[in-house]
């Protein structure tokens, strides 16, 4: 029987200072909540806003798949592998940190804010060679259905990560229905509402005002082979992260 974990937008840990406005779904840095450690292999999900010219100075990572998705603005990335890149809204950056990498990440906008999703996924193999990738989000191909942009195997439009995980995005209009089939039996689904208001099968099992999910809400679903739902707002942009649950 399907199991549901609901993370309402305002239940996230909210940190704010003079350069960063961060909403953290799971324990991260100085935020620790033993009930919010991860969702299977999904370890970190931060929705961050950086002020102009500010960001994260040079720092290390290892043995983690790190995905950055600008929603507005652009990010400037630099690492010790020789990569110096700028990614903008409509793109995604993937770091397989493996045996170790140092990098920095700044808002590249001279005047405006940059909002981006920072997502960490545990790898299925440790101490691999680090690598950096970029991939365009399938914003046009992903209309009226979910379209993958990250998967275990790469293709022309998909970047591969070191895990049996998929990331897909979908753009829908009012009253449209959607369906997502699970790629690998036993994987769980984490659905994040970037914008919009939606209903999801089984939502009646969760205490949600109005029985719908809206901007910033997250829903973890396990023990399913698919999920489906309907859009209630004028439009909706939805992110699906499918991950193994044995973590």
TrEMBL record:
Positions bound to Fe cation: 59, 61, 103, 105
**Which keywords annotate this record?**
Iron, Metal-binding
**Keyword Acetylation in record:** no
Q: Which cofactor does it need?
A: Fe cation
Tell me where in this chain the Quercetin 2,3-dioxygenase C-terminal cupin domain is found: 150-243
Gene Ontology terms, MF aspect? metal ion binding
Gene3D superfamilies, from UniProt? Answer: Jelly Rolls
The Pirin N-terminal domain sits at: 13-121
Q: How is the cofactor bound?
A: Binds 1 Fe cation per subunit.
Organism superkingdom: Bacteria
Q: Pfam families recorded for this chain?
A: Pirin, Pirin_C_2
- Family per record: Belongs to the pirin family.
User: PANTHER family, per this entry?
Assistant: QUERCETIN 2,3-DIOXYGENASE
What this protein is called in its record is: Pirin family protein
Source species of the chain: Taibaiella soli
């Amino acid at each position: 029987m399907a199991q549901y974990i609901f993370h309402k937008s305002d239940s996230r840990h909210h940190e704010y200072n003079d350069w960063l406005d961060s909403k953290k779904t799971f324990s991260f840095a100085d935020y620790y909540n033993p009930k919010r450690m991860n969702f299977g292999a999904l370890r970190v999900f931060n929705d961050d806003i950086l002020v102009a010219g500010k960001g994260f100075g040079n720092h290390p990572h290892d043995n983690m798949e790190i995905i950055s998705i600008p929603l507005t603005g652009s990010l400037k990335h630099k690492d010790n592998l020789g990569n110096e890149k700028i990614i903008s809204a409509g793109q995604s950056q993937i770091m397989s940190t493996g045996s170790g990498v140092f990098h920095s990440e700044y808002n590249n906008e001279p005047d405006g804010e940059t909002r981006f999703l920072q997502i960490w996924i545990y790898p299925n193999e440790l101490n691999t060679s680090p690598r950096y990738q970029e991939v365009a989000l399938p914003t046009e191909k992903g209309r009226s259905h979910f379209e993958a942009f990250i998967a275990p195997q790469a293709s022309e439009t998909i970047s591969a990560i070191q895990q049996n995980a998929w990331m897909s995005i979908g753009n829908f209009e009012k009253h449209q229905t959607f369906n997502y089939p699970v790629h690998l039996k036993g994987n769980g689904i984490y659905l994040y509402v970037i914008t919009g208001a939606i209903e999801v099968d089984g939502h009646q099992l969760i205490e949600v005002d109005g029985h719908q999910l809206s901007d910033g809400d997250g829903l973890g679903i396990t023990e399913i082979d698919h999920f489906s739902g309907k859009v209630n707002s004028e439009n909706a942009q939805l992110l699906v992260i499918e991950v193994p649950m044995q973590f």
